[in-house]
């Protein structure tokens, strides 16, 4: 036992400390402030911050929702969810201001509004979740944890789908792509991994110390589940052999910022830089097949989205000097993939603009455009203006000022081009979306399964923020989910080759602000993943489960007896 003297000293120290400790009291850290803290902690778990203890923020959010929220619990619960989501997305998406500052004279006034409005719009889904939880869920026990995790992830799936979707930083993507924990995405996808993550770290909110060891069972089960996931991931990383294919690719990154002034002299310099790096001597990454011919020119050259500040019509017009450049650019049987914007006719015969990936080949001494993919998922406010009739009246407009904005193409699917392994094209923002390709190689049919993913992006919009790092991490999850390698090209970084386990191939990374090129043998595919086969079933199952839990908890609520 402590002596009387020691107890007196501790009491005196506590008395001195008490004024400062008031800031931890309910009057200072009420539900909204605790919710904001929960959102901040959860956001800091994502790369590049990597503060994984922040995942306990989900436990703090559950604790707040289970506490006494006063006489208007639904309203308070909505506010709790909203403020948690607002801070979460404020930290996750502050890079959006950079896009408006590229042309500060025209769009700079919109930056503060964008920084606040975007998190507020997305946080609305977290607020709805909070209200649904307060209305239907029990306030303690394992059932409350189950409802919290399932409904939270259900609303996250809705966020990634409704109004074109914005699936930035789901909880499962807190784990760095390519890590042991991230490998569970090959089985259940990033949303399934989100469910596991949220349920595991929120379990601390339902601890009952009064029950002794029994009261800690939820946390012990959660720790065991995380351990199983980690062991599975480690086994997959160790047991899966990644080998190079026979197809080589060159990534070209010229470090052209979005703020560059598109004068004629600047345009000529940009073209010269791309041409010089395309024709340069081979420079292969150390990772390659043993005995490979390091003197061979690459089979495929990839330029990023928006590589050149001109339309396809201008670049390939017979009267344009650039048409001659492209005619002499490639060697025999060589392929160029590049991002460009172009005009097109829609199904009604109206002229529209597309954000396109062109596939250009040199065949029989002739340069030809052999294939084109038009971007399916467009960036709201960047490439098109949602609710245009309303927002245009207050002066809002697209960041990409081309016509009335871009028009989406057909749904993303694998493409086959003579002389190339079949590939899945993803342009920029599309790398965020799980299962964007819904071709029939799902359910084990391999007849048209792509052999690699081509992801061209214009991360120059992000500037030197956390945006490029998070964008890369989110895109790399598509490689894990499908068991496919990904080749990613951007104008300013991060350009990289990712293996089918989501890991960056050594010596293939061109970071933010770097200029250069790298040649690499594309990795071979691995076995079709469970998520690749059954992602439609997973989504359907989770959706049905969310709906079932609502009436289940309502019907089982005890009826209050009246005297």
Automatic annotation (TrEMBL):
InterPro entries: Apolipo_AcylTrfase (IPR004563), C-N_Hydrolase (IPR003010), C-N_Hydrolase_sf (IPR036526), LNT_N (IPR045378). This is Apolipoprotein N-acyltransferase. PANTHER family: APOLIPOPROTEIN N-ACYLTRANSFERASE. Gene3D superfamilies: Carbon-nitrogen hydrolase. It is an enzyme of class 2 (transferase). Belongs to the CN hydrolase family. Apolipoprotein N-acyltransferase subfamily. HAMAP family: Lnt. Pathway: Protein modification; lipoprotein biosynthesis (N-acyl transfer). Catalyzes the phospholipid dependent N-acylation of the N-terminal cysteine of apolipoprotein, the last step in lipoprotein maturation. It comes from the Bacteria. It is a multi-pass membrane protein. The chain crosses the membrane at residues 34-65, 77-97, 109-133, 145-164, 184-207, 219-238, 536-556. Its EC number is 2.3.1.269. The lineage of its organism: Bacteria, Pseudomonadati, Pseudomonadota, Alphaproteobacteria, Caulobacterales. It is found in: Cell membrane. It holds the Pfam family LNT_N. PROSITE patterns: CN_HYDROLASE (PS50263). Keywords: Acyltransferase, Cell membrane, Membrane, Transferase, Transmembrane, Transmembrane helix. Residues 252-524 form the CN hydrolase domain.
